[in-house]
Amino acid sequence: MKILFIADLHFGHTNIIKYENRPFKSTIDMDAGLIKNWNNVVSKKDIVFLLGDLSFYPVEKTKNLVSLLNGRKNLILGNHDTKSPAVYMDMGFEFVSKYPIVYKEFFLLSHEPLYVNETMPYLNIHGHIHSAEYAGDKHFNVSVEKINYTPISFEEIQKKAGVK
After folding, report:
1. Taking the C-alpha atoms of 68, 36, 99 and 92 in order, what is their torsion angle to the nearest 10 degrees?
2. Does the 3-161 domain belong in CATH 3.60.21.10?
3. pTM of the predicted protein model
4. Residue ranges covered by each domain of the chain
């Protein structure tokens, strides 16, 4: 069983393709590509943390897309995730939080980057800023644009960030 992270899928968001220069022709192409990439690395037993901004589609269409994604899914709500946690639970998420959480006593999981100074012993795994970078070595951006539109393993994050 692996633990993986991803953020900012933005299913159905036509303008994100242009805003972030995503390599897709349309939302249909983007949605299919994101689902394929996800399922290529996530097994049914794996745990995935989606750090916000799931979909711009109505609830039923989003629920259908979520059902196509392998793994046990957890969601930290992003600024575009406007439904209640119960709605996302009904879509197939095992855990939904409106707020950042601490994972394994060291990793701060959030949608938007959190303030972490040099004296704080945390690494903030986040999304929200898409292809941008957050200064310093206390942040790891898992927006799809930064991780080749594919969930990234917890081990890979630890390796790239130089933490265990």
Report:
1. 10
2. yes
3. 0.97
4. 3-161
